[in-house]
Each structure stands twice: as structure tokens, then as C-alpha cells.
Design brief:
The chain is α/β, with parallel strands linked by helices. The protein is 40% helix and 16% strand. The chain contains 17 helices and 13 strands. It has helices at residues 10-15, 27-35, 37-43, 58-68, 84-87, 107-111, 119-124, 140-149, 153-156, 161-177, 189-201, 209-216, 220-232, 264-268, 272-277, 279-300, 347-356, and strands at 2-3, 20-23, 48-51, 76-79, 100-101, 236-239, 255-258, 305-312, 317-325, 330-335, 360-367, 373-376, 379-383. The strands form four sheets. It has a six-stranded mixed β-sheet with strand order 8-9-10-11-13-12, sandwiched between helices. The chain has a three-stranded parallel β-sheet with strand order 2-3-4. Helix 11 packs across helix 12 (209-216). The mean pLDDT is 93.
Length: 391
């Protein structure tokens, strides 16, 4: 079961890995499946792609029966719209389908080597030194341009800026006017848009919920419902705070992100020039962009990794992102809008290293400059472009 944001390329990707495609949004193909899904699946060559499965939800029950009868692993791939889980009244294939999240296109997918090891596998193996610059040098302006193009294939694959802006505007309108109404046809799209604008303005920040629902003019209960809806639609994400018994007074407030920095274009009217002129938005854009590159690296990592953020004593110590491996080791990361980070920029990483000792696998200061270099024991300054550079 491939899930992910609308228009991120789930069906296009799945088609490359199957022998048969069943498009359930075509009535000619859906009707036989609706009449006798077991017989249809049994007659097709595997692997089978069931596209828009939610239009004939009984097909999942047929998949369950086929798996129980001995179908091999990988025989079925199911994809649906972002509304699929919201529409589904029950889950017929529990224990038979593995959910895989597909995010938008990463810069490594667009410009790098997708067969190389995950960034996290290299980091936890102590091999960050094997990362090299991308073939095309990327400075600050280029990074911002790529961030605001985002990872949606229709904008990431080379259309003009005007077309990209219009597409992104239509994308948000579709989400707010149609997808967001599926569970509540009386939901106010104006208030929901205000809430999303407030969230976009605070992306990559630890913001109190009250700030968001006051900005949207809604109650706490409605704000919480908006959060759940926007996360189900893969529009926003909350990165949880990290906790350990070894440190006291850590915040428990999640860090909020829009899933793709390109959403800042229609939500805030942001463009490259505006981001470069506003230091606060520039930092938020780069932080959101880096997380967008790390999510796919997390999905393909051999070692299970969970992402968090860390904040202590109202910001006295904080790390933008912290990856925790299954063995308890942590990789701490900061994102800086500077081309020449100094040791001072790694002070929170240095503090955490000294507090955690051997549990501290390493620290990374992502920056906008051209070179990687050491900032201390187990702490490196790494250009953002190295995330998709040569391995």
C-alpha cells in the first residue's frame, strides 16, 4: 500500500514494478472487480497494481483472501488518492499489506545517485566523509529556488515559474475545497485556509497551538481537528520532541512543518526574492527543505531511524533535527543559512555530545557553502547539497 501526498507520483512509480495495472477509476475495469474481485485477481499476472482502490474497497478483502491462500509477497500493490483513508470505513487487509510512504521527489532522485546508501546509513556508520558535492554547484539562491519548486513532479521537473505558481495555487485550492471537505461537508474552507497560512508562516518552528487557532479564529477543538486532517492529507507534519532520562527540562512541544516548502508559495505569496530578503522566512524555508530531503532517506535507510527535534529551557539548547537509531544512538542536526559556519554555530551539538558521550553518533551543521569540514570531535559542517551529491 503506497500512501503519500496528492500528485507525488505514487501511481507512476508503482507502474514500474508491476506486470498488470487495474485502474479502478475506469468503470470498464472496475465493474468486473466489483462483481467478482477474487476471480479477476486470480486471472491476472502478478504483481498487480490496484490503482484508486478506494473506489472498489471490496478489492482489499479479495487481496486478503489471496494472501491467506498463499499469494507470494509482492503480488499486489495498492495506490489511492489522499482521500482514500478518509473515505474507507474499514481496513480489510490488516496484516496483509505493508504501508509505504512515498514523499515528493527529493533532490537526490532528481540530481543524484538513487542506488547509493542512505544518508542515515552513512552517518551512523561514521562515513559522512564519503559524501561529495553535487555535480552542479548550488549556492544559496539555487537552494531557495529548488526549495520553492518543491518535490511535486509537476513543479519539480522543469516547468516555468509562472506555471509552477499556478499549479501550486490550484493544488492548495483542491485540498481545501474538495479533499478537506470529505469528512465534513460543512467545514469552513476560509478558516481552514487561515489555519494553514498560520502554520506555513511558522513552519520549522516550535509554536504553541493557541497561536495557530487564534490566527484562524477557531476553537482549540477545531484546531486539533484541522491538525489531524492536514496530516492525513500529507500537507503538514509534527516532528515530536526528543526525550531522554539523561537530560532534564526538555520541551514536549512538537515542531511543526508543512510537508513541502513549495506550499509556502501559494500560502504566503513567497518567492525567491522574498525569501532572500527575510531572514526568518529564509531559515524556515531551508529547514523545511532539508527535512524534505531527509524523509526519503529515512524511508530507504537499512537502519530504522526516527526523527525528532530537541529544545531545552526555552531555547537555551536546541537542535533543529535529531535522528535516533534503533540502538539508541543519536545524530543531531542544525540547519544554518550561512556559507561559512563557525564553531559557535555548532555549540548546541557540542553540548549534546558532551552530555550523551558514546550515545552521540555525530553532529551535522548543514550550511549553504561549498565545502565540508570538521567543527569538532564527531561534528562536521556539511553543505546542504551533499545530501544529493556523489557517494
Amino acid at each position: 500500500m503506497i500512501v503519500g501526498p496528492r500528485a507525488c507520483g505514487k501511481t507512476t512509480t508503482a507502474r514500474r514494478h508491476v506486470a498488470t495495472v487495474v485502474r479502478l477509476d475506469r468503470e470498464a475495469e472496475a465493474a468486473p472487480v466489483r462483481a467478482d474481485p477474487d476471480a479477476v485477481l486470480a486471472a491476472l499476472d502478478v504483481p498487480i497494481l490496484l490503482d484508486e482502490w478506494q473506489l472498489v474497497p471490496d478489492v482489499l478483502a479479495a487481496v486478503k483472501r489471496a494472501v491467506d491462500d498463499g499469494a507470494a509477497a509482492g503480488s499486489f500493490v495498492a495506490t489511492g488518492s489522499v482521500r482514500a483513508d478518509l473515505l474507507a470505513s474499514s481496513w480489510a487487509a490488516t496484516g496483509r499489506l505493508t504501508r509505504i510512504t512515498q514523499w515528493g521527489m527529493s533532490q537526490r532522485e532528481l540530481h543524484g545517485d538513487v542506488s547509493a546508501p542512505s544518508f542515515f546509513d552513512l552517518a551512523f556508520a561514521g562515513e559522512l566523509g564519503s559524501l561529495r558535492p553535487p555535480l552542479i554547484s548550488v549556492g544559496l539562491r539555487e537552494l531557495v529556488e529548488r526549495a520553492l519548486r518543491g518535490g511535486y513532479p509537476p513543479t519539480a521537473l522543469g516547468v516555468s515559474d509562472v506555471v509552477a505558481r499556478r499549479w501550486l495555487g490550484g493544488y492548495v485550492d483542491q485540498l481545501l475545497q474538495r479533499d478537506a471537505q470529505i469528512t465534513d461537508e460543512h467545514r469552513d474552507p476560509v478558516k481552514l485556509r487561515r489555519y494553514l497560512v498560520a502554520l506555513a508562516a511558522n513552519t520549522a518552528g516550535v509554536v504553541e497551538h493557541k497561536t495557530l487557532y487564534d490566527a484562524a479564529g477557531v476553537s482549540r477543538v477545531t484546531g486539533a481537528a484541522y491538525d489531524s486532517l492536514l496530516e492525513a492529507l500529507f500537507v503538514s507534519e509534527q516532528v515530536p520532541a526528543w526525550h531522554t532520562n539523561r537530560l532534564n527540562r526538555l520541551t514536549r512541544t512538537a515542531k511543526r512543518y508543512v510537508v513541502d516548502p513549495a506550499l509556502l508559495v501559494p500560502m504566503l505569496g513567497l518567492d525567491v526574492r522574498g525569501a532572500l530578503r527575510n531572514g526568518d522566512l529564509l531559515g524556515r524555508t531551508l529547514d523545511t527543505f532539508v527535512l524534505g530531503q531527509l524523509r526519503p532517506e529515512q524511508e530507504v535507510a537499512e537502519m530504522p531511524v526516527r526523527l525528532h527535534h530537541l529544545r531545552l529551557d526555552a531555547g537555551r539548547h536546541e537542535c533543529d533535527l535529531l535522528a535516533e537509531a534503533a540502538d539508541g544512538r543519536v545524530l543531531a542536526m542544525e540547519v544554518k543559512a550561512t556559507a561559512a559556519p563557525k564553531r559557535e554555530d555548532a555549540r548546541h551539538l557540542t553540548w549534546l555530545r558532551d552530555e550523551l558521550g558514546a550515545t552521540f553518533a555525530g553532529g551535522v551543521v548543514f550550511h549553504t557553502g561549498p565545502r565540508a569540514f570538521a567543527l569538532g570531535d564527531r561534528i562536521v559542517a556539511l553543505p546542504i547539497g551533499h545530501l544529493w551529491g556523489a557517494r
